[in-house]
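Quick start: what a row looks like.
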Amino acid sequence: MNEKVKTARLSIFSNIFLIAMKLAIGIVGGSVSIISEAIHSGIDLIASVIAYFSVRISDTPPDKEHPYGHGKYENVSGVIEAILIFFAAGIIIYEAIDKLEGKSQINSLGLGSLVMVISAIVNTYVSRKLYKIAKKTDSIALEADALHLKTDVYTSLGVAIGLLLIWLTKWYILDPIIALCVALLILKESYSLLKNAFYPLLDISLSDDEIKIITEVIVDHKLQFHSLKTRKSGQFKFAEMHLEMPADIKLKEAHDTCDNIEKEIQQRIQNIEVNIHVEPV
């Protein structure tokens, strides 16, 4: 089991633990903000399961039906996760508005605050682990999962502070208001995730920094090029170009030069496949 799969599995287990804890305290205490956090963790669990299977499939080697590999499974996973977050935010907004219309009484404010702090600590650890592996492996699925949990940290702390304010002021209206704020944060998170996951499905080009690296490598070899095209599929990247060489150069020399350029680019850009078409000048 590789590092990506192990980390995705850790996220699943942590979310199961947090859902059980938040739901129990939310129902017993009657707090819609804690229940909204349990719903958020429930969506996070679904997202973690999707991320787990997507990273397993995305690392599968290319085959006859998928000659460019299975990297876009991670992007599809990210899009599904973003849609799930939109759905979770809708549920939380509905519950909060319903709570605003009536009077509510919340019990176990101290215990509820403690649960939220524990949730924030657990999610801080797991999200940092996910981010670390996501950056190391350039995994959009793990990055999306980390983003979920990072938002959970902020919302959990917000709910904990809100419950403390309710205990001090007895303003129970703060509970649904906090839940609405949680929902707005979740909507913002889902928009960013949807954009990052969806664009690569449209074969968007690599970043300006990565294109600059490709250009620098070719210029270092004192060669000209044109028709550079790049795209990304999950963690995998692809670049193709037309490289200009003297018309009288030997085939082996041209081949060795292309090999050297490809290797230098691959040393500086992780998981990239380079395809060069040589043109005589």
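That is the whole record. Strands lie at 224-233, 236-245, 272-280. The CA atoms of residues 250 and 256 lie 10 Å apart.
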